[in-house]
Design goal:
homodimer; about 375 residues; alpha/beta; D-Maltodextrin-Binding Protein, domain 2; 2 domains; 15 helices; disordered N terminus
């Protein structure tokens, strides 16, 4: 594991989801990447390892950051301190989106973020995060464990000098906040929307004008009409961010991010230097964090949605089927084109497409059918 | 932790799901409960603990048994053998459904089964397993972690002298195998069906004749018309069991078991005797097993369903909405009546009902809406 004092490479700025919000929202204890290289090095006395994990999220950020905290906490607890993981928020050691460089180079041992943040380095990573109209969270986890996904993700992350673990998931996100109605696909023509990543490419293909704005500038831009719409995450995070103050039409479903996966990436040399028991601890702690984050979103999205509707008068609106059909077809074209540009992206996407075909067939007779059955008009338990 | 040689109490026979199948299917290394008490005791030298876990499933049973194997494997690996968990299949130490008695009394430290197996001892346990038209798997996990479910489950299992962990889930099961069409709720009148638990109570309320049969007798009974229908699990297990040979109508969704949870129960004294690091290891290994089992079902149900339809000519049929509405209303009455009989059942059910109300509201705009959007008529990625 490299621990040399050489300064980190600074990757060129990239328009990455939530990047601007994160870098503006976090002000405490910010240090530069150059300063990071002179941080005190972890002590390695008596076989005790001290690792540092930086998140791309502000410290303790609901859902996204709490999973990282749990990961660090459980590795430390389960190893009885033989592997202590100290958790740092975005910018506490290096800028948020230089976390990967810091882990690749061994300045940090661990990072926590989302795979699409690294698409500028390895394009295939964006297909691991979440794909418009792709796998949902249960299917994505199953693809990773039984569909060859873990092996493919490890192949992608090896190019970054890292070991990969799935370490949290938002579940299906919301479609976004709109000040204009979306009745037909035509309504996307000229629509100014803040929507990054693959979803943004699809909106562009539909004739939308995709813009990127720092998080803090989104509410005034929505209020003034400088933008017509923005997506964010889901009720839990969106309520806290106050987006209901600038737009009242809250569309669903989040076709563009059906299961956004959070990644735990570990410097490969640091990972390979772990004993078998510590590897097992890191693996199971990630399984814990992976479900913990999703559980937190499910539990809190419920209450937040109710608050948005009942307290803040938000109108929850469904994208018309006609619009979803149009976006679905455009998604297929856009994603296929993007993946065809490099062999690894193609390999990952092919594997997902294959798994998705079977998943859809089974979901129709299981989860999907159950969801639809449960909301039929009958009185269930009254207590 | 009691390790005395007193013979285990033998609970009276109960009609429990899959019981007969399991006890007939497993023949190897069966020993009696009395013999179990004279098994060699684990060595406790040098702070190393050796625990024995028996499952209620045959050793290595797909999905159900593999999760238990992973649990034992990861606890042993992550603790570097400081806590070794040896996994025994049903009947290897005690009969399958005496596993709880053996764990309660300290003959075994751990068991792996399903909560409704213990309803004869503590009725509230059946509400933790899965409830007709209740929570799906994501919601159930979220209820456990953030909705007060873990605390309630621990309260239920303390009555059994055990610590509780969720340790696997089948996801939504299938509605079952039928030789008669179900077009209206009237079609349940006189229908002879093998369906245990809460689902069986609902079918009874609909006028059905609920029978229990040893697993091996189900296929001939279906073929001869002695029974008209049976439920089992889902395509993965049902294909292996060969039910398609005796019935061709495969109904969905499995309204009666939307998310059947597997339990890991640990002798309370043994649990409390663990150091903090070993407790964390057991907790995270259960999180790993919990998602592993579900992942295995999702991945394998897909392919099994295809085989059933394409190779074996199975007709996959949806229960008509009218039938689901009738079963939903009956479920509400039956479950409410059962829970009202004791305070702890009421407490558990009230907590689930509250969580479910919020979950349904959010599912409508997230998972449910996404599932429905994904199957609209559009061409997605072609590679």
């Amino acid at each position: 594991m490299k621990r040399s004092g050489k300064s980190l490479e600074r990757p060129r700025a990239k328009a990455l989801k939530r990047r601007e919000f994160l870098t503006t929202a976090v002000t405490a204890t910010a240090v530069t990447a150059v300063a990071a290289s002179s941080f005190p090095k972890p002590s390695l006395s008596q076989g005790l390892k001290k690792w540092r994990m930086q998140t791309t999220w502000p410290k303790n950020f609901p859902g996204l950051g709490t999973g990282a905290n749990k990961l660090g906490e459980f590795i430390t607890k389960a190893s009885d301190g033989r592997l202590t993981v100290e958790v740092y928020g975005a910018k506490e050691i290096v800028p948020a989106f230089e976390t990967m460089d810091a882990v690749s180079s061994g300045t940090l041992e661990m990072g926590h973020g989302a795979p699409y943040y690294w698409k500028g380095k390895v394009p295939a990573s964006q297909f691991i995060a979440s794909i418009p109209f792709g796998l949902n969270v249960g299917e994505q986890n199953s693809w990773l464990q039984f569909g060859g996904g873990q092996e493919l993700a490890d192949k992608v992350y090896r190019k970054l000098g890292c070991k990969f673990f799935a370490s949290g998931n938002t579940g299906v996100q919301m479609g976004g906040w709109f000040n204009k109605d979306i009745n037909t696909l035509e309504d996307y023509k000229g629509l100014k929307m803040r929507i990054p990543g693959l979803g943004g490419e699809v909106v562009k293909a539909a004739g939308g004008i995709v813009v990127n704005l720092p998080g803090g500038e989104i509410p005034p831009a929505l209020a003034s009409g400088a933008i017509d719409a923005t997506e964010w995450v889901g009720p839990y995070n969106d309520l806290a961010f106050g987006l209901y103050k600038s737009a009242k039409k809250y569309y669903y479903p989040g076709w563009h991010e059906p299961a956004t996966l959070l990644d735990n990436f570990i410097n490969l040399e640091a990972w390979e230097g772990l004993s078998g028991d510590l590897k097992a601890i890191v693996q199971t702690a990630n399984a814990y964090a992976n479900s913990y984050v999703l559980n937190e979103y499910i539990a809190n999205n419920n209450a937040a949605l109710e608050t948005l509707v009942k307290k803040h008068g938000v109108q929850v609106k469904k994208f018309p089927d006609e619009v979803l059909i149009g976006l679905g077809a455009l998604s297929g074209q856009v994603i296929g084109d993007l993946a065809s540009k490099d062999a690894l992206s193609s390999e990952v996407l092919k594997s997902i497409v294959k798994f998705r075909t079977g998943s859809i067939a089974f979901a129709k007779v299981s989860e999907q059918a159950f969801y639809n059955a449960r909301v039929l008009p009958f009185d269930w338990v009254s207590l």
